[in-house]
Amino acid sequence: MEKLSILWALVRRDYALQYAGSFLGISWMFLQNLVLISLYALVFLVLNLRNPSTQEDFTAYLLTGLLFWIPIQELLVRGTGILTDNRSLLKRSSLGIDLFLWIPYVQFLIHSFVTSIPVFLYLAYSGKLNLMGVVFGYLVLVLSGLYLMLLLHYLSRLNILLKDISPLIRLVSQLIFWGIPVLYYPTGYLKQWNEWNPFTIPLDVFRTTVISGFLPQFDWFHILPFLFFFFLVYLLAKRKFQSVILDHL
Q1: How far is CA 235 from the centre of its chain?
Q2: Domain that holds residue 192
Q3: At 54, phi and psi to the nearest 5?
Q4: Where are the alpha helices (DSSP H) in the chain?
Q5: How far apart are CA 55 and CA 180, in angstroms?
Q6: H or E stretch including 99?
Q7: In a structure prediction context, what are the per-residue pLDDT tens digits for the chain, which is 249 residues long?
Q8: How far apart are CA 19 and CA 16, in angstroms?
Q9: Do 95 and 6 meet the contact criterion of CB atoms below 8 Å apart?
Q10: Burial category of 34 from C-beta neighbours within 10 Å (exposed 0-12, middle 13-18, buried 19 and up)
Q11: Which residues contact residue 168 at a Cβ distance below 8 angstroms, ignoring those fewer than 6 apart?
Q12: Distance between CA 157 and CA 134 in Å, rounded?
C-alpha cells in the first residue's frame, strides 16, 4: 500500500509537470483525444473516405480502433522518456527505476477509461455495444498496456543510454499506427502485412469483445511470437541494462 501511495503521488507530480501553466490543465489531454477521434470520424464517415467492404457498422469499427490506439500511443511515447524526465529525482531517491516506469502505465489506465466513456455511450446508443463485453474490453486494454510495458522496460533504459530517442519513437508509432487496421478494413496483402504488427491481435480482441456481432479478423495465436519476443526484451533490460543505467543517470 505504501508503494501504491508513492506511485500515485508520482503520477500526480508527473501530470503537474506536464500541464504546468496550461489553461485547461489535464483536461486538455482528454479534450485533445476527443477532438482527434472526432476529426478522424469526420474525415472517414462524413466525407465517406472508407472501404466499402467493411462490416455492418464502420462507425463502431473506427471508434474502437481509435479508442484502443490513442492511449497505447501515449503510453509508448511517454513510457520511453519517463526515466530521462525524472533523472534528477531518481538520483536523489531510493525508489528504484521500476516504480517510475509504472507512472505512464497508471496514466494509460486513466486515459483509456475516460476516453472510453463517450465512445461506449455512443456504441450503446447505436445498439452496437456488447454490454457484457465492456468490462472485458477494458481488461483487454489493461493487458495490452502490460504487453507494451515489457518493451518499455527496454526502451526507457535505451533512451538514457542514447540521450533521447523520443523523436524516433514518435516516428515509429506512426508506422505502427498505419500498420494496424484502425482506419481501414484489412483485406488481401494488407491483411497479411497486418499480421506482422504486434498490436494487430490485441486490437482485434478488443473489437471482438466490445462490438456486438463483430467477427474476429485474425487468428489470435499469432500474438504468441510477439509475446515471447517482448518477454525476452524485458529480461534483457532487467538483467543486462540495470547496472549500466544506474551509472548513466
Answers
A1: 21
A2: 1-248
A3: -70, 170
A4: 2-18, 27-41, 58-85, 87-92, 97-125, 133-161, 166-178, 188-194, 200-210, 223-236, 242-248
A5: 17
A6: helix 97-125
A7: 667 888 888 888 887 777 665 666 666 667 777 777 777 767 666 655 454 444 456 788 888 999 999 999 999 999 999 988 888 787 777 777 888 899 999 999 998 998 888 889 888 888 889 988 889 999 999 999 999 999 999 999 888 888 888 889 999 999 999 899 988 888 888 888 999 999 999 999 999 999 988 889 999 999 999 999 999 999 888 877 766 666 666
A8: 5
A9: yes
A10: middle
A11: none
A12: 35
Q: What cell does 246 get?
A: 544506474
Place of cell 503520477: 11
Q: What domain count does the chain have? A: 1
**What is the distance between the alpha carbons of residues 149 and 154, in angstroms, rounded to a whole number?**
9
State the Cα–Cα distance between residues 1 and 6, nearest whole angstrom: 9
Give residues with Cβ within 8 angstroms of 106, minimum separation 6.
Answer: 7, 8, 11
**Cell numbers describing residue 139:** 481488461
